[in-house]
Design goal:
MutS, DNA mismatch repair protein, domain I, DNA polymerase, domain 1, 15 helices
Length: about 525
């Protein structure tokens, strides 16, 4: 049975949380990639996914901000507190997004339309005082998935509200591309099969979907049909797994209370694992010695680990203890209660017979997870293989995901996908921090260039770097060029270049690229 749900989304929240003005060009960067932009930055062509230098080239005055989930959650706590007047059980998934069932509140406030309008107006008033308008969307539909899509569309509505009638979620979702399911590998397969819209996917028989895509395919097929995103098997725990911690003396600082929460979260996670369960929705209750109480429900698409639980407890504590003075408690924290509100069978991890994860690997992973729990998600990063044509795209720095990590990371064959124009293995080991210009010369000393068909104008013989006007390094071997025509469908982000491998007489080798007629060093072989 579907549950009528209201969802609030604010895509620009990582920017709003920095206290930046709406007319300032600001971007949040993680692993040298843009993850969020302000409207002023988007107007200059800065988009999510761009590299730092590309973003700064499009907008020289761009202000770069580091990601800070703790800051985002602390500031978003004030928005969640505004919604508390409509319902006592606000459900948070991440800073910038919240949801709650509308059955009771809708009856009290005069229907779904009236409820959504009131919620949007209150949040707009709060954000408008700092200059942010049109930054939030409110949607109501059958289930969180359809309601989220409605909220995203509401961002373009004058009143920032979109309400889908009861029973119409399937028809509403039918026109959305399959990419909104959040599974790139599945979306690619469906598109190759000619199923480009959710309506096409939903029209398939359930038996055929399960036979081809398994349990996950059935779950996503339910979403495409407008059915609530929780499978029927998901429900309350079969017995109480409540975890409680008493703080004596009362804690008045976030770090002290969060340290206590670590032991409680580890205990809860281990007890759930012993039963073969994983928590997908968690109720966190915080009480003070003055009798004050704050409840928040946190949802995760996968399974909450002990690190994920501590993160959410810390966000809730930080937003309450360090939030606006009118919302702060008058006493110290005396009690923490963690209640797994929804559980599901744990999927576990499959390890290999040889070369698998050792006990030392697991101990190291848990140690890094604890450091991440104390310092934040972005504080611990590791190299991660990604897909792409160049060396800068193939490996990036990503937040650590250990044996009990819960943060999403791309899986599957994205790295090994057929990338036309991709540099062959082995990839270079070093990437220059700054652009190092070069000149490729032929035997007569003339500049070498690459034609539109990927043909060199002459055989390369020498390379000069930087501002050199004479001399240069002699080339003893070269390979390429490899043409790369990226994002040809978007005039603003279209990038066309060619890469050339060269080896010098002194044993060094570099990967050169030419773009707009100018050569530069893209990477160095070590």
């Amino acid at each position: 049975m579907n549950v009528r749900t209201l969802v609030v989304v604010c895509p620009d929240w990582p920017i709003i949380a920095t206290a930046a003005s709406a007319d300032e060009a600001v971007a949040v960067l993680a692993a040298n990639r843009v993850t969020a932009t302000s409207p002023a930055a988007r107007a200059e062509g800065v988009e999510v996914g761009l590299r730092r230098r590309d973003a700064q080239r499009r907008c020289p005055g761009l202000r770069i901000v580091d990601p800070d989930p703790d800051r985002d959650a602390r500031v978003f706590a004030a928005i969640a507190a505004l919604v508390d007047q409509f319902t006592p059980r606000v459900e948070l998934s991440s800073p910038g997004s919240l949801a709650f069932p509308t059955l009771g509140p809708s009856r009290y406030f005069g229907g779904d339309e009236a409820l959504a309008t009131l919620v949007a107006a209150d949040i707009d008033d709060a954000l408008g005082s700092s200059g942010w308008f049109d930054a939030v969307g409110v949607g109501i539909a059958d289930g969180p998935f359809a309601a989220t899509r409605a909220a995203e569309q509401a961002l373009a509505q004058p009143d920032h509200v979109r309400v889908i009638p009861s029973g119409a979620s399937a028809a509403f979702l039918s026109s959305f591309p399959v990419s909104v399911l959040g599974r790139p590998e599945l979306a690619e397969v469906l598109q190759r099969l000619g199923l480009r819209r959710l309506g096409d996917f939903a029209a398939l028989k359930v038996d055929d979907v399960v036979a081809r895509f398994g349990a996950e395919g059935r779950f996503l097929h339910r979403l495409a049909r407008g059915i609530d995103d929780q499978p029927p098997s998901v429900g309350p725990p079969p017995r109480s797994f409540d975890a409680v911690a008493a703080l004596d003396p009362p804690a008045e600082r976030v770090d002290i209370a969060a340290f206590t929460a670590r032991a409680v979260a580890d205990d809860l996670h281990e007890r759930l694992q012993a039963e073969g369960l994983a928590c997908t929705r968690l109720l966190v209750v915080i009480e003070t010695d003055a009798g004050e109480r704050l409840e928040r429900v946190w949802r995760h698409e996968g399974a909450l680990s002990s690190t994920g639980i501590v993160d959410r407890v810390r966000w809730q504590l930080d937003g309450w203890l360090n939030g606006p003075s009118a919302q702060r408690p008058s006493g110290g924290i005396t009690r923490l209660l963690l209640v797994p509100d929804e559980v599901m069978p744990a999927r576990g991890r499959q390890q290999g017979f040889w070369g698998g994860e050792t006990e030392a690997d697991e101990r190291a992973g848990r140690a890094l997870a604890r450091v991440q729990g104390m310092l934040g998600v972005a504080a611990v990063t590791v190299p991660e293989r990604r897909g792409g044509r160049g060396p800068a795209d193939g490996v990036v720095r990503a937040p650590f995901v250990g044996t009990d990590g819960d943060h999403d990371r791309p899986r599957g064959g994205a790295f090994d996908a057929p990338w036309p124009g991709r540099v062959p293995s082995p990839l270079p080991a070093l990437l220059p921090v700054e652009v190092c210009e070069a000149e490729v010369l032929d035997e007569a000393g003339h500049r070498v260039w690459v034609s539109g068909r990927g043909v060199l104008s002459a055989e390369p013989v020498k390379v000069r770097f930087g501002n050199e006007t004479h001399g240069g390094l002699s080339i003893v071997g070269w390979a390429g060029p490899w043409l790369s025509d990226e994002r040809w469908w978007d005039q603003r982000t279209h990038r066309r270049r060619a890469r050339l491998q060269v080896a010098f007489a002194d044993g060094r080798a570099v990967l050169l690229q030419i773009e707009h007629g100018r050569w530069s060093i893209e990477a160095i072989y070590d």
